[in-house]
Amino acid sequence: MLRLFLPPNLPAAAARDAIVVKLELEPAAGGFPEKLLPGLALLAGWLGKAAAGAGPMRTYLQLDRKKLQALLDAFHGQPVFHWSQKAGVALEWKDDALTGVSEHLVESPVAPSKAEPEKSAPVKPRTAAPAGEPMLVDGSEHFLAIALPAREHPSHAAALDLLKNHGFVLEPSNRKWWLRDRHKTLSFLAEHGARLRDGFGARFTPNFQKNTAGVRPAEIVCETASAGEGFDVTVGLKVGTAPEAAVREAVAAGRNYVEADGGVFLIDPEKIRRVGEAQRALAGSAGLAGARQKHRIGAERAAEVEEILAELAPGFQPPEEWRVRTEALRNLSKLTPAPLLAGLEARLRLYQRLGAAWLWHLHRLGLGGILADEMGLGKTVQALVLVAAVRGEAAAAGAPSLVVCPASLIENWKREAARFTPELRVLIHHGADRIAEAAGLAAWDLVITSYGTLTRDREMFAAIEFACVVGDEAQHIKNRRSQNAQALRSLRARGRFLLTGTPVENSLDDLRSLFEFLMPGYIEGVPAGARGDERAWFDGRLRAKAAPYILRRTKRAVASELPEKIEQVTWCEFTAPQAALYRALQERFERELIDLEASGAGEGRLQLAALTQLLRLRQVCCDPRLVAGGAGEAGKGGDGAEGTPFDGSAKLEAFRELLAEAVDDGHRILVFSQFTSLLALLRRELESQGVAHCYLDGSMSRPARQAEIDRFQGGAEVPVFLLSLKAGGTGLNLTAADTVIHFDPWWNPAVEAQATDRAHRIGQSRVVTSYKLVCAGTVEEKV
Question: Is 331 strand, coil or helix?
Answer without folding.
Answer: coil
